């Protein structure tokens, strides 16, 4: 009887519609949040904070973004990397153009620019659906990366073409760039992540979320009850791209500390898509689980062969990684399209019954 | 129901279709059809398969554009009508092959019926404040009334894809009702149901009409059900109008007996 | 002003000034287009017969080529290597049907699409784990001399590739029109339900069509591999078959071929004459942007079926 919802009676729709209607869930999430913000920075070392948690959290934001588009609104995208790049480059432009403005606005500016670009590339989605979008989003992927790479304006005519992320402070503490401590970068990123995840939850369970899912499940019926397809799809593209843009900006400013196109190539797009599939289509929690899983799997594989004492070349490990990813995608799509998030829900179901399953 | 009852219930013309012609390539699905629907009545469009019933509904709904003819709804003529415009003008409908949002719960499905009445900005929704919160609560309350009315409280949280056919039909009716439409279009609401489910559905249709005063236009090919429910009936065959009148008048019409009853039933 | 001139005037002046060079560029582009056509062709076959948008078609090209070149490196004669690789591609078709498609029969198309992305990753990893990922030259006796037409230089290998591709399309056309299996495939493409009801088992159709697409991939892989070497980037280049499909329509074989030629010639000409104006390498995205623009005006493609929606 560790986890229970029996005996919880709601007396108002307000209570029933709260984000986490079951007290257990509420306390759990609050505890995790506090733990992540306050405790983790003290108990983790530089490597865990800077090389695992920061990238996983940033990729989670991108995964939430893609999940909004694909999992909730049903529109496939293979251009996630490009939308992240848009966030990174435009964030960089904003931050260097307005050096005195708080870095938070710089990151958000990256997100907003990416949202606008997302709307442009989402526009054909009115007339086409499903996998046609794969092609238009690939257009975004190849065109945008080319644009940022070839047009020196985007990097302020930097000679190397790969500018470093400018250092910026919040409350006098460096949070971006190579000089910033892992702890500061982590706290900065985790706050963004929590805020964006909370907003995403509010969106998907409210009016706009229902219109996305309606378009996903049956677009004609949705139109016949008064949902405007173009507006709905474009809002999904815009918000999805906003999340990806913020993630891209954070990636450049708080993780790799440079603004470079290779960080956002087509493999990044696939990586995020895999996170969404493995984590669970149509689940915010799943976006986190998927990001953590897909990001750490290669690290695990590397160590795995080392532990076994097998001398496997890094190239071969990379090929095996591809096989494992491909196999996992097919496996999850067949066995559990709702991904890790669904497995989590099942575990909770079990826990509710425990220790008396009948 | 007495005659005076019926007359007080039924009011002005709400929809008036004149000389509607709709063709696909060479085939005329509708040929010069005219009829009207009055406020508060249950109006049926019947006919054998391929008679053009669904096409008629799709024209009213704005899904198809007729080549000729005009429709006035609430006294205003249709310009080229898009489905979402029809919806915002107060026309809601159900479908012959259920068109629910399979991945969403019963509650969310019915909540989509309220979409047009919710005005909160994206920011308000994102932070669940002001109208974002207020509207969710208000509309939830209304939707709960619909759920009570249709007696589907128990399946509130179930994804509709998992529900049996009869219940799905009921949820779909709920979604249309949640929009509080001025005109409710029902496309074969009893298709594929067993007798008991048909009786339930008939009861809901009559109750909707009486309790909420909703004008209903329904399509059916099962004559027996329709005759008991309807105030007036239009009979279509091969895209043409055969007869129009009260159930009794239609039943006695020779053309109808020949074309429809004679062949498929008695 | 100068910029506009470099877009709207200078390139055309150059074309008129040296028509032979233009012809050379154009012809080279057409030949690259043949390769796109071949990938798109395998794609259309699968899409028509099973409604699956097979993202892995490009990787199948790489996978087939890897196996073929791997066998050659182990001293297997060319004809035998070809047959063995055909067998491998057929076995792959069986495996895909048994392990993937069968379990996803009633799923949304988008789920199937994503499953083929998974398949693409798996095949790529599998092929490279088996045979390694370094660039492998492929030498199967395709002539590599040049002909001159006036001042224009024409690669014999390109002409050879075009002839082979043409021959294969002809064989496929004959196969579809005159064999029992071919007719069954066409029946399924026209109407799944009807085909099922007259007793054509869908599973067999899938296997056959994936196997045929596998063989098409093998031919494409050999032609391509002998030009560029067998390497990972083949699968990225093969992605350009997707915009080709948008142009040609997802269900049209002539569309796939003509679309491929248009994209191939178009991107080469654009790169050579306009690329430098925009900073070069516009080949990378030219095909996609053309497809994107095309979608606004003719979403069903040049030859595709018009999409009619019903309630």
From TrEMBL, chain A:
It holds the Pfam family BPD_transp_2. GO terms for cellular component: plasma membrane. It is found in: Cell membrane. This is Branched-chain amino acid ABC transporter permease. InterPro entries: ABC_transp_permease (IPR001851), LivM-like (IPR043428). Keywords: Cell membrane, Membrane, Transmembrane, Transmembrane helix. The chain crosses the membrane at residues 27-43, 49-69, 76-95, 101-123, 130-148, 184-204, 234-258, 270-301, 322-345. GO terms for molecular function: branched-chain amino acid transmembrane transporter activity. Its main location: membrane. It is a multi-pass membrane protein.
TrEMBL record, chain B:
The keyword Mitochondrion does not apply. This is ABC transporter ATP-binding protein. One of its GO terms (cellular component) is plasma membrane. SUPFAM superfamilies: P-loop containing nucleoside triphosphate hydrolases (SSF52540). Residues 15-263 form the ABC transporter domain. InterPro entries: AAA+_ATPase, ABC_AA/LPS_Transport, ABC_transporter-like_ATP-bd, BCA_ABC_TP_C, P-loop_NTPase. Pfam families: ABC_tran, BCA_ABC_TP_C. The keyword Coiled coil does not apply. It comes from Hwanghaeella grinnelliae. GO terms for molecular function: ATP binding; ATP hydrolysis activity. It comes from the Bacteria. Keywords: ATP-binding, Nucleotide-binding, Transport.
UniProtKB/TrEMBL annotation, chain C:
CDD domains: TM_PBP1_LivH_like (cd06582). The chain crosses the membrane at residues 20-45, 52-72, 78-97, 109-127, 159-178, 205-224, 244-265, 272-297. InterPro entries: ABC_transp_permease (IPR001851), BCAA_transport_permease (IPR052157). One of its GO terms (cellular component) is plasma membrane. One of its GO terms (biological process) is amino acid transport. It holds the Pfam family BPD_transp_2. Keywords: Amino-acid transport, Cell membrane, Membrane, Transmembrane, Transmembrane helix, Transport. The keyword GTP-binding does not apply. It is found in: Cell membrane. One of its GO terms (molecular function) is transmembrane transporter activity. It is a multi-pass membrane protein. PANTHER family: ABC TRANSPORTER PERMEASE PROTEIN, BRANCHED-CHAIN AMINO ACID TRANSPORT SYSTEM PERMEASE PROTEIN LIVH. Belongs to the binding-protein-dependent transport system permease family. LivHM subfamily. This is Branched-chain amino acid ABC transporter permease. It comes from Hwanghaeella grinnelliae. The lineage of its organism: Bacteria, Pseudomonadati, Pseudomonadota, Alphaproteobacteria, Rhodospirillales.
């Amino acid at each position: 009887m560790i986890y229970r919802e029996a005996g919880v009676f709601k007396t108002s729709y307000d209570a029933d519609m709260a984000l986490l209607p079951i007290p257990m869930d509420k306390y759990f999430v609050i505890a995790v949040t506090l733990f992540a913000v306050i405790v983790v920075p003290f108990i983790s070392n530089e490597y865990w904070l800077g090389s695992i948690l920061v990238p996983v959290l940033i990729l989670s934001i991108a995964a939430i973004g893609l999940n909004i588009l694909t999992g909730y609104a049903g529109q496939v995208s293979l251009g996630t990397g490009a939308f992240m790049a848009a966030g990174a480059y435009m964030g960089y432009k904003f931050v260097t153009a307005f050096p005195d403005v708080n870095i938070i606005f710089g990151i958000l500016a990256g997100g907003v620019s990416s949202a606008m670009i997302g709307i442009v590339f989402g526009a054909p989605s009115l007339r086409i659906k499903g996998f046609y979008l794969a092609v238009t989003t690939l257009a975004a992927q190849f065109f945008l990366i080319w644009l940022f790479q070839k047009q020196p304006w985007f990097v302020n005519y930097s000679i190397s073409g790969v500018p470093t992320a400018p250092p910026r402070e919040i409350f006098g503490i460096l949070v971006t760039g190579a000089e910033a401590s892992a702890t500061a970068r982590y706290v900065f990123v985790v706050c963004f992540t929590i805020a964006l995840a909370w907003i995403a939850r509010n969106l998907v369970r409210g009016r706009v979320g229902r219109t996305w899912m309606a378009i996903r499940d049956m677009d004609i019926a949705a139109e016949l009850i008064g949902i405007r397809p173009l507006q709905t799809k474009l809002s999904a593209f815009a918000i999805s791209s906003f999340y990806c843009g913020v993630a891209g900006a954070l990636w450049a400013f708080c993780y790799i500390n440079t603004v470079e196109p290779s960080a956002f190539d087509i493999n990044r797009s696939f990586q995020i898509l895999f996170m969404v599939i493995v984590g669970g289509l149509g689940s915010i929690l799943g976006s986190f689980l998927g990001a953590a899983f897909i990001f750490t799997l290669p690290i695990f594989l590397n160590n795995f062969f080392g532990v076994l004492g097998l001398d496997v070349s890094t190239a071969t490990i990379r090929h095996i990684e591809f096989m494992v990813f491909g196999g996992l995608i097919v496996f999850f799509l067949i066995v559990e399209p709702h991904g890790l998030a669904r497995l989590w829900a099942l575990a909770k179901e079990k826990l509710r019954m425990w220790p008396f399953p009948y | 129901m007495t005659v005076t009852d019926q007359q007080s219930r039924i009011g002005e013309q709400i929809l008036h279709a004149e000389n509607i012609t709709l063709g696909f390539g060479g085939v005329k699905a509708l040929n010069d059809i005219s009829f009207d629907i009055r406020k508060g009545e249950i109006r049926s469009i019947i006919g054998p398969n391929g008679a053009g019933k669904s096409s008629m509904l799709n024209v009213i709904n704005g899904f198809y554009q007729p080549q000729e003819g005009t429709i006035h709804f609430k006294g205003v003529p249709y310009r080229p009508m898009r489905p979402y415009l029809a919806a915002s003008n107060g026309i809601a409908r159900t479908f012959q092959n259920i068109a629910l949002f399979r991945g969403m719960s019963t509650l969310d499905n019915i909540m989509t019926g309220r979409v047009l009445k919710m005005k909160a900005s994206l920011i308000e929704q994102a932070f669940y404040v002001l109208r974002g919160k207020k509207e969710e609560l208000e509309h939830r309350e209304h939707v709960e009334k619909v759920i009570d009315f249709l007696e589907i409280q128990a399946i509130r949280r179930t994804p509709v894809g998992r529900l049996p056919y009869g219940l799905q039909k009921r949820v779909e009716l709920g979604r249309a009702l949640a929009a509080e439409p001025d005109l409710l279009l029902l496309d074969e609401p009893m298709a594929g149901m067993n007798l008991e489910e048909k009786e339930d559905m008939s009861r809901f249709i009559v109750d909707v009409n009486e309790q909420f005063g909703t004008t209903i236009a329904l399509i059916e090919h099962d004559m027996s059900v329709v005759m008991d429910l309807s105030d007036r009936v239009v009979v279509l065959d091969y895209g043409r109008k055969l007869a129009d009148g009260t159930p009794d008048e239609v039943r006695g019409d020779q053309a109808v007996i020949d074309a429809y009853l004679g062949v498929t039933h008695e | 002003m100068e910029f506009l001139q470099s877009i709207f005037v200078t390139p055309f002046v150059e074309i008129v000034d040296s028509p032979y060079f233009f012809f050379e560029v154009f012809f080279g582009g057409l030949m690259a287009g043949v390769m796109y056509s071949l990938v798109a062709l395998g794609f259309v076959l699968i899409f028509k017969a099973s409604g699956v948008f097979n993202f892995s078609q490009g990787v199948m090209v790489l996978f087939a080529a890897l196996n073929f070149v791997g066998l050659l490196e182990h001293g297997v004669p060319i004809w035998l290597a070809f047959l063995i690789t055909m067998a491998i591609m057929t076995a792959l078709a069986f495996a895909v049907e048994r392990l993937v498609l069968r379990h996803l029969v009633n799923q949304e198309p988008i789920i199937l699409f994503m499953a083929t992305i998974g398949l693409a990753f798996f095949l790529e990893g599998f092929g490279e784990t088996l045979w390694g990922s370094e660039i492998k030259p492929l030498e199967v006796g395709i002539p590599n001399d040049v002909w001159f037409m006036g001042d224009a230089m024409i690669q014999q290998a390109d002409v050879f590739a075009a002839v082979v591709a043409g021959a294969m399309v002809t064989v496929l056309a004959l196969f579809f029109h005159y064999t029992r299996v071919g007719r069954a495939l066409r029946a399924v493409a026209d109407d799944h339900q009807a085909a099922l009801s007259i007793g054509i088992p869908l599973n067999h159709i899938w296997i056959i069509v994936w196997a045929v697409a596998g063989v098409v991939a093998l031919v494409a892989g050999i032609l391509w591999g002998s030009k560029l070497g067998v390497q990972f980037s083949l699968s990225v280049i093969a992605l350009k078959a997707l915009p080709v499909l948008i142009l040609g329509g997802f269900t049209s074989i002539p569309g796939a071929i003509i679309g491929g030629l248009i994209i191939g010639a178009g991107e080469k000409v654009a790169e050579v004459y306009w690329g430098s104006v925009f900073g070069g390498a516009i080949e990378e995205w030219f095909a996609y942007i053309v497809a994107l623009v095309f979608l606004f005006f003719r979403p069903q493609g040049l030859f595709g079926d018009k999409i009619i929606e019903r309630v």
